[in-house]
C-alpha cells in the first residue's frame, strides 16, 4: 500500500514498515534515488532470506520530519536528515552514515574528506544514541579516494557502500542476533555550515581566464587529476 503527498518544505521522507511474524522495523529515509534503491533491497532481501512470512507495507511521507512513530521493534535511519527523538532510543535504532566513523561525522562530509587530505572514505552502520553519529559502530567499510575524485564521486561511492551494508545486516536486524558493536571514541563531527563555493585566484590567473573565454565558443579549462573542468560564466548555466 502506498500513498504520498508533498509538503512546502520540499523534503522527501519515506517511512517503510516491514512486518514479519517476529519483528517490525520502522525505516526513515529521504526521498533520494539511493533511498529508493534501499527500499527495493528491503523487499528483495526479505522474501529470500527471512525465516518468517513477510507482509511489507510502505508509506511515503513528504511532510519532512517524522513526528509520529508507529508501533515497531527497531528502527533504521537511512540518510535521514533529522534527529530521531531521544524518547524513541529505548528501542534499537541503526543509522547508515555516508562517511567513515569515527573520523568523519556530521555534515558536508565528502567536502571535509577532500579538504583534509583523507586517503580513504566510505560508509558506516552504527547504533544510534542521543548524539549525532556517535553511537557504537557495527561496521565501517572504506575505499581509497582517487586522485581526481570529487565530493560528488565520494557521495555516490559511499551510498553504494551503505546499500551493501544494508544487504548484509538487514537479515540479522529482523531475525537476530543483533550485530555486535564497538563504542566510538574521539569522534570528529563537522557541524552544518554554508560552504563558500568561490575559489580565489591571483591576478595572473584571472587575466588568463578572461583571455581564454569567448562564450559560448571557447572556454578556459583546468586539469585536476585525470579530469578536465571547463570554466564558464555563471549566466550560461542558468
State the fourth-level CATH superfamily of the largest domain.
Formyl transferase, N-terminal domain
Q: How many H/I helices?
A: 4
Strand order of the largest sheet: 3-1-2-4-5-7-8
CATH class of the largest domain: Alpha Beta
SSE sequence, one letter per element: EEHEEEEHEEHEHEE
Query: Into which percent range does the helicity of residues fall?
Result: 10-25%
Structural class: alpha/beta
In CATH, the topology of the largest domain is named Rossmann fold
Shape: elongated
Task: Summarize the main sheet.
Answer: 7 strands, mixed
CATH architecture of the largest domain: 3-Layer(aba) Sandwich
Averaging pLDDT over every residue, what do you get?
83
| Uncertain parts | 1-11, 48-62
The counted number of beta strands is 11
Number of domains: 2
Strand content: 25-35%
How large is the radius of gyration? 21 Å
First-residue to last-residue Cα separation: 40 Å
Characterise the protein shown here.
The protein has helices at residues 33-49, 109-115, 151-175, 203-212; strands spanning 13-20, 24-30, 54-61, 74-78, 93-97, 105-106, 120-127, 137-144, 189-190, 220-224, 227-231. It folds into two domains: 13-190, 3-Layer(aba) Sandwich (Rossmann fold); 203-237, no CATH class. It has a seven-stranded mixed beta sheet with strand order 3-1-2-4-5-7-8, with helices on one face. Strands 6-9 form a two-stranded parallel sheet. A two-stranded antiparallel sheet has the order 10-11. Helices cover 25% and strands 26% of the residues. Helix 1 (33-49) runs parallel beside helix 3 (151-175). It is an alpha/beta fold and 238 residues long. A hairpin with a 3-residue loop joins strand 1 (13-20) and strand 2. Mean pLDDT is 83; it is low at 1-11 and 48-62.
